[in-house]
UniProtKB/TrEMBL annotation:
A 1,2-diacyl-sn-glycero-3-phospho-(1'-sn-glycerol) binds at R142. This is Phosphatidylglycerol--prolipoprotein diacylglyceryl transferase. The chain crosses the membrane at residues 20-39, 60-82, 94-114, 215-232, 252-271. It is an enzyme of class 2 (transferase). GO terms for molecular function: phosphatidylglycerol-prolipoprotein diacylglyceryl transferase activity. Pathway: Protein modification; lipoprotein biosynthesis (diacylglyceryl transfer). It is a multi-pass membrane protein. InterPro entries: Lgt. Catalyzes the transfer of the diacylglyceryl group from phosphatidylglycerol to the sulfhydryl group of the N-terminal cysteine of a prolipoprotein, the first step in the formation of mature lipoproteins. GO terms for cellular component: plasma membrane. Its main location: membrane. Pfam families: LGT.
Length: 287
């Protein structure tokens, strides 16, 4: 049995400014995006398309806006609309946590559409370029959730599970006398960090090192994440849940299903079309 370490959510005080761990995890996510992007630009099939470090830096600005605005709006609309509409000031208090991946995903798609129009890039190439840099940033965000003691897991069926954890109830002050939720819990943010983030990256990065048909890399990421998230949702206390034919489906699974189905269809279309990333239709390879 483990006990959640309950670190102070504030990493450091800089005068009157409190720097939160959750915010630092987003800084880490963006730094990882830049570092991996620098490596990706050096891959031969990417370098052949003329990508530059300046493109990456410019794209990051758009991506940051997409992540923050889309992620927060997704949290408001997909998960807790009643709470946020009753407490609208909380929408701005992002340092408390509460960012929807699915909302951020949509926000980044819109941001990259805007950037591609500005840069004169093919939107499908842009999605394929950035997809392998996303999973580790997601993992950093989930670590921030764990530090904030957000997203508690379900009660474990077997209390002897070595990593079963006493989870703090964040509706009460954590110190000096912390209150815990009932029952030992799965540390679900760590599951999602490891599976939805690090494992997806370990599969996607090697796949993306070779030239693939347009949109195949982006679709592969969407498929891998959707499947991983659908699985890890079984260990997380759902924000809300519906019942389909006696089968409970959580909010996260409901939002991941369209990703899985859409990614499969796009992957089949991509390989059938068989146009290499960066190529024009006239450069189509034989199937």
């Amino acid at each position: 049995m483990l006990i959640h370490p309950m670190p102070d959510p504030v990493a450091v005080h800089l005068g009157p400014v409190a720097v939160h761990w959750y915010g630092l995890m987003y800084v880490l996510a963006f730094a990882l995006f830049i570092a991996l992007g620098r490596l990706r630009i050096k891959q031969p099939h990417i370098a052949a398309l003329g990508w530059k470090n300046e493109d990456l830096d410019d794209m990051l600005f758009y991506g940051m806006l997409g992540v923050v605005l889309g992620g927060r709006l997704g949290e408001v609309l997909f998960y807790r609309p009643a709470f946020f509409f009753a407490n609208p000031i909380e929408i701005l208090e992002v340092w408390h946590g509460g960012m929807s991946f699915h909302g951020g995903f949509l926000g980044v798609m819109v941001a990259m559409w805007l950037w591609s129009r500005k840069a004169g890039r093919n939107l499908m190439d842009v999605y394929d370029f950035i997809a392998p840099m996303v999973p580790l940033g997601y993992a950093a965000g989930r670590l921030g959730n764990f530090i904030n003691a957000e997203l508690p897991g379900r009660v474990v069926a077997d209390p002897s599970l070595p990593w079963a954890m006493m989870w703090p109830d964040t509706s009460y002050p954590l110190l000096p006398n912390p209150v815990f939720l009932q029952g030992l819990r799965h540390p679900s943010p760590l599951y999602q960090m490891l599976i939805d983030g690090i494992l997806v990256f370990a599969i996607l990065w090697p796949y993306a090192r070779k030239a693939r048909p347009q949109l195949a890399v982006g679709a592969m990421y969407t498929l891998l994440y959707g499947c991983a998230r659908f699985f890890t949702e079984y260990f997380r206390t759902p924000d809300w849940e519906v019942n389909w034919g006696g089968i409970p489906i959580t909010s996260g699974q409901m939002l991941s299903l369209p990703m899985i189905i859409g990614a499969l269809l796009i992957l089949m279309w991509s390989y059938k079309r068989n146009v290499v990333m960066g190529a024009t239709p006239a450069a189509r390879k034989p199937a």
